[in-house]
Amino acid sequence: MDASSLRISKFDGTNFHAWKFKMQMVLEERDLWEVVSGEIKAEQCETQLDQATYKRKSRKAMAVICLAMEDSQLPLVRSASGACDAWSRLEDHFEKKSLANKLFLRRRFFTTMMEEGDDVLEHINKLKTLAEQLEAVGAPVCEDDLVITLLGSLSDSYQFLITALESRSDTLSWELVTSRLLHEEMKRKEQGSKGDEASQGQAFITRDNQRKGRPVKKSWPCHNCGKIGHWMAECPSRIQENTERHRPQRAQDSGDRYRSQRANVAQEEDSGDYLFSIGETTSAKSSDIWLVDSGATQHMTCSKKFMRNYKGFDAVDVHLADDGIVQAIGSGDIVMSMKTPQGMKKGVLTNVWHIPKLSRNLFSVGRFTKDVGPVTFTKDGCYGEAKGTKWKIGAREGKGLFKLQMTPVAPEQANAAKSSGCQGGTKSYLWHLRLGHIGHDGLNCIVTKNIGIGIDISSVKKWDVCEGCALGKQTRVRFQSNTTAHTSKLLEVIHSDVCGPMSMATFSGKRYFVTFIDDKSRYCVVYLLKSKSEVAAKFMEYAAMAETQTGKRVKYLQSDNGGEYKSDKLARFCAERGIQQRFTPPYTPQLNGVAERMNRTLVECARCMMEHAGLGKSYWGEAVMTAMFLRNRCPTRAIHQDKSPYQVWTMKKPILANLKVFGCHAYVQVPQDKRAKFDSKSSLCRFLGYAEHQKSYRFEEVSTGAIKISRDATFMEDKFDEGPRNYNDESSVVEFGDHDEDEEKEEGKTDDDMDSSDDDNEDTRSSKSNIKRHTRTQSLEKATVIPSPKRRTYRGPSLEHVSAAAMDFEAAYIVDSVGETPTTFKSAMESSDSGKWKEACDSEFDSLQRNDTWEIVPLPKGRKAIGCRWVFRVKENQDGEVERFKARLVAKGFSQKFGVDYEETFAPVAKFTSIRVVLSMAAKYGLMLHQMDVKTAFLNGSLNEDIYMDQPDGYLDATQPDYVCKLKRSLYGLKQSPRMWNQTKNGWFFWKGGIKRGPPAPPLHHNRPPQQQVFGGVYVDDLILASSNNELLKSTKMALSKRFEMTDLGELDYFLGMEIKNDRKTGMVTVQQTKFFKSVLTKFGMDNSKPVKTPQDPGLKLTKNMCEQECKHEDTMCNVPYRSAVGGIMYLMVATRPDLAAAVGSLSQFSSDPCPTHWQALKRVLRYLQATPNHGLEFTREEGSRICGYTDADWAGDIESRRSTSGYVFMMSGGCISWKSQKQRTVTLSSTEAEYMALSEATKEAVWLKVLLGNLVR
Questions:
Q1: CA-based, 20 to 30 A from 719: which of 112, 140, 803, 1169?
Q2: Annotated catalytic sites, by residue?
Q3: Looking at the structure, do residues 451 and 465 belong to the same domain, yes or no?
């Protein structure tokens, strides 16, 4: 027996209450609990048999208990006399009934609070567990206290439900309250809440006729003295002041208090004991006035002219106190200018809601307090505070209103602040950017203490603003600094934590990253992950690397209690290597502060760099890896030395001379062998970081998105996707929040998402816009303009002018920074999945050898061998999960010569129509649908020509390295291979397999008689089998497997990108392409677009002349993936979506020269796909197998050529089996003639279908 068979987590000293309950269940299940609990004692056993049974059960129970405990806890029970004694010792130790333990648990019970956004069930269970622990130590909590504590600990958004529950006349039971809370949470999720107070966001106003919306006194500050606990009207200092100075006026105002009036704005100065906002019906509307609102849950504006990073969302109801409802339709950021004791500053209000029908702009005190700092109200104004700076944010202007003393800044002025520095601080600010937005003190430490090599400034000048930092580093109040001493040796303690999932995956599908930090040096290594399950493998990789580089051994691994760190795989590895794992107590991530703080630092640094460079969220992986590279080379307070982590780790100073600003543009030299004589010698790229294990840079080519590794580049560090930066702007910004970079403790959760602008709104940008997004990440909802390269205004030192020593800089240990499918055998063997790729290559090579594909011979004189290469692919199932790694050896057939190496090449495959006919017949006759795959299908064909090929990489014959492979079989990549396979397959089907081929559809095969039907559809090497007889199906599979090497994939569920469901009981077959259509939307950035109901705008006629009318469209469309998008939609149309046929036929006409209007029309089709995710084909038994066809044509619908468009669709078993929409070849003189031409096309298809079905079912 071992611990794994118990299926419970081992007790590590931190989860006794839960472990105790689970152990009791295990012991009861094994009939051992009565011995452990003391229900049966040894002295109660009368006979020797009973005593022997008791001892046996006691020993067995003792073994179960000990095997379910970590080694560190075993000393507590090692000397116990039996299982009962051991259990008692554990209860006495972990459930002490001392006063101190009771006090500790009661304090935790009454101080546990639910944060906004937390899961309600998790919070309820947390309180219930604490109550059970209190009961175990002799301090039970009654049900009333439990209910009161639960209600008092809920977040502010549940105040309305609390009020409703408190108003009930009956007793509030625990079951009632918890059920109402869970129901409320479920209702909010169903309504699609948007996160921060989401759809329940409300703006409270002064008062209405019923005096609604009054908050709890203790929750809000007095508007007069700023203290919490009373209203302004009850303020002692105000009462005293009014008694002495305004007694007559107070009497009059008091008498007016309850007058019935419309409460659109605050009416009286004495009504300051109410919170206020602005209703919809205020007479004087102005988009320039901002009022300070202590009741609104969000900053709100009625105009978006000052907003940037604007993103639209589905309308959200906002409730006003006059029972009116307005709708928020989007959000964005607004830069505000304000006067502070230090002069004019700028600050950023984030997530400001856009509510067009709002009468005034509202500055939310609650949101400002939560995001920035406290707000204090006095009788003449209100004051905000952030980072020790206090300034006036609102002034009283009569009638109890506070007008905001900040002025919104236009976006074009705000953008200038993004890259500004103080006067003369250009170089300092540039190095601030190069080093990943390092703080002023950190940069000053590098310069003054000579920590790095290559810094070309002698002193650091203060810069006042970096908007990337302002938007990327806002924090909460941190925990008290950790006082634990650092270790004295490398690798003695390794801290680790996982960050994610990110809201958007990288280009290689990564959504997490894990950090491993050495305690002594603080040297950090980052790995990007697709899932948390990869942590164990990455730690093994890290340990091997670190121990090899340092010559030390890892002793301790410090982490939280995440399941990824408690996996059996990691536990076995640590046990074998003598590595002890240390876990933090539950719900205390602060005790894993080193890793938590590093993750936050990396995320903030990455966010700042992406914000400054104007890159989308998909670049977060590149940014995090670059942040790791830079942080390892910057000083940190944590190690208390004038050294960087890199220097402590390697004993070398880091070389900083070649650092560049992340995301900047650069011209990268094109290698000579990859360009023609008069081609450009360089290409425009964006800088993405530092190459893995190479002394080079990583770039992404702007025009193609290809990743390049090069050291030959000319950088333009003032040029980014959003245009040039000016490093000498004099404006400045107040950076709201705590920006400390080197503390290890922080309250709350680690940032695990990137905050960058979203491009989902409907507004298209002007053709004069300087904003440009790369085609791999741009949202198609906002077509952007690609500007031509401009002359740079700032030139930093180019690589040609840097010394040889500076050129020899150290590259980061960047692991799996891209993780794309390898393109060469060498890159596959150097990747993180090298073992899996090698296994795939071995399998392919063994298959080639078994099929006697070639023989090794010397190359004859006068003949030239063709090359070969490995092609790698990760195959996924219909759920997107990795199914297997596949490698295939492919001949370079493009170098073959007609008449020498090949003759004919034609080879047919099954039409999609034929496949749909098989599926419709399966629905009609209740057929079973199965799928098989022919392994290395092309190798079954024999060659008639003599073809010589180079030996494959990685499998060179050591005894005959100069020989070549004389091919005997039709290898993949040869021009004649498909034809050879088709002839081999057809020959066997005709003469050996007993399966006949339908004349009009060569790759569709069937077996007779009808009562013993087997239909087979073949698409290259994928085979569908449909049969009504299970035995016949098995015999057919056996016959195929004897002739060819087959893979039996079982029941058909995924074929050529189509998801197929066959319900034989109901006689229904459904065909969809959900996974493929989602990948299309994601690829083109339309997965969050606004859906539309039709694929085409009926009022829009697309023409080629539009390109001439829309000037400069060449620059606009040069990098827009129009053809690729048309191709993706076309495959959906061909397979399962007849509703797209007309739209694809129209849009595909402009693939060679599209203009922005064509692009907008294509995006509409993608938005239509977003609205119809579940559309597909459905075949049913009840509809029968009779074919019904429909056809029609417009007349002169193409306004340029005046040609008409024909269309037809054929139905069978209730679903579409064939369809077409195509422009006619000639101009027709009448609508009748156009319809006759359409009828002719439909008749041809009808005849083809008739012959096909006649051959199949007769």
A1: 803
A2: 293
A3: yes
